[in-house]
Amino acid sequence: MRNILYVILFLNLLHAGVFDFQTIDEAKKAFEQKNYALSSKLFGEVSSEDKRKFYNQGNAYYKAGQFDKAIESYQKAKGINEEARRLYNIGNTYFRKDDMANAIKNYESALKVEPNDKDTKRNLEIAKRKQQQKNRDDKNKKQDKPKDENKNKNENKKEENKNSQGTPKEPNKENLNRTKLDKLLKELEKKKIPTLMYQYNKDDNGKIGEQYEKPW
Predict the structure, then answer these.
(1) Cα–Cα dist 106/123, whole Å
(2) Phi–psi pair at 28, nearest 5 degrees
(3) Are 53 and 10 in contact (CB under 8 A)?
(4) Better pLDDT: 2 or 108
(5) What pLDDT, on a 0 to 100 scale, did the predictor assign at position 142?
(6) What are the pLDDT digits (tens) for 202-213?
(7) Among 15, 88, 94, residue whose Cα is nearest residue 48
(8) Beta bridge partners of 40
């Protein structure tokens, strides 16, 4: 974007005192030396309420990056002969503030005064493109917001379920051993394992022979 500030020099202010002339000259020199903070301060010290003073102070504020103060000074300058320039500079200031709606409004107002101004037309076109892009971005954000909310709800629900279930406790070793033992005993009962018994063998004479083991 081309930022063109049209500085109006007004060394012949009517009703201006000697000190005003001196202050204006100092403000002009400070502006040319790019000491914009000092320039805006000096323009503010001029006692005359001539609207051109506010216009030039607005330019100094703009160059100093103090955009809100620049707009305030430009608005006080309403009614100057260079009305299209004033509106153009207000548009540029809003552009720098990323306020495309007000930038467009002031560019369009400036074109009503000077319909053929190329710089204003160019800046208006750029501001409109930026506003359209901003509108698209805002629309996409609104569409993405419900998705993010649902995602957060699902994550919170999972976390709640996890907390409600609690951390799985380690099984008690004593209970585990008892369970295994009960299971083993039940299996043994089903198999009916025979008990070993001792029997005595008698010979034909009725004499007790040697003992031996025999499964049941």
Answers:
(1) 11
(2) -65, -45
(3) yes
(4) 108
(5) 80
(6) 444 544 343 333
(7) 15
(8) none
Banded pLDDT at 54 (limits 50, 70, 90)? very high
Is the domain covering 18-131 a CATH 1.25.40.10 domain? yes
Domain boundaries, the chain: 18-131
For residue 182, give both structure tokens: 């009960």
pLDDT class of 140 with cuts at 50, 70, 90: confident
Q: What is the pLDDT of residues 123-137, one digit of tens each?
A: 999 999 999 998 898
Residue 21: its pLDDT value, please? 84
The residues, ordered by sequence, that sit 6+ positions from 211 with a Cβ below 8 Å of its Cβ are 198, 199, 200, 201
pLDDT of the residue at 147? 63
Burial class (CB in 10 A: 0-12, 13-18, 19+), 151: exposed
Half-sphere exposure of 125 (CA within 13 A, CB side): 8
* Global model pTM greater than 0.85: no
